[in-house]
Amino acid sequence: MLYLPIGTSASTLGSSVNTNPDDVVNVDYKSLPINPNDADELKRQAQSKGEPQSAKAKSDQQQSKSSQQKQQASASKQQQKQSKKSVSKERLEFLDRLMELLRQLLQWVLWLVPFVAVAGGIAFGVRFRGHLFDSPTEPSGSVQPRTPPPEPNPSNEIERAWWSMVERFGVEQAHTKTPGECAREAIEAGADRNAAETLTRTFEEVRYGGAPITDDRLDRTRNQSDKLEVQP
C-alpha cells in the first residue's frame, strides 16, 4: 500500500525530468505531488540559480573599473595640486632670496657712496690744484688784455698817425675806448682791415708796451697810413 504512491510519483517525476531543458520552466506542476505555491517558488529559485553570471559580473567589473578610474583621477588631481603648490613655494622662496640680496646690495651701495664722494673730491683737488689755488695767468693767443683808453696827446709820429686814422673814419669819443675798439669802428666805417689792425698794434707797442720807435716801426706806420689815406 505504501510503495504504490511512491513508485507512481517517482515514475511521474522521472517522466517529467526526462524532457527538453527548454521545457523545464513549463513543467506541469499539477502532476507533481507538491503544492502549486511551492512549485512556483522552486521555479523562481531554479530560474534565479540558472541565470548566467556574466551580466552581473560585467556590471560589477564596470563599477570596479569606474571606481578605480575615479580614484586614479582623484590621485592625479591631488598630485597636480601638490606639484603646483611646490612650484609656487619654490618661486616665492626664490623671490624672497632675490629681494634679500637686493636689499643687501643697496645697503652696500649706500655705505660706499660717502667714501666714493670723498675720494672723488680728493682726486679732483689733486688733479686741478694748479687751477684752484694758483693766481690767474694772462690770456694768451688771440685773446689780448684790455688796453686802457688812449689820451689824445700824441708825442711821436706813430701816435699821430693812429689818431689821424681815428679822426679820418669818425670814431667818436675815442678817448673813452680801447685802441682795439677804435680800430674795429674804423674798419666798420670803411678803413682797410689789415692797415687799421697793423697801425693799431704798432701804436699799442709804443704807447703801452714801451717799445722803442725804430725805423722798422716808422716804415710800417707810414705804409699803413698811405693805405688809410691819413697823414702821420
Write a brief caption for the model.
This protein has 232 residues and is mostly helical. Helices cover 69% and strands 0% of the residues. It contains eight helices and no strands.
Describe this entry's structure for a reader.
The chain is mainly alpha-helical and 232 residues long. Among the domains are: 91-133; 157-228, no CATH class. The chain contains eight helices and no strands. Helix 5 (157-168) packs across helix 7 (193-207) and helix 5 packs parallel to helix 8. The N and C termini lie far apart (194 Å).
Question: Percent of residues in helical segments?
Answer: 55-70%
Query: Mean pLDDT across all residues, rounded?
Result: 75
Radius of gyration, CA atoms, in whole angstroms: 67 Å
Structural class: mainly alpha
Q: Which H/E pattern describes the elements?
A: HHHHHHHH
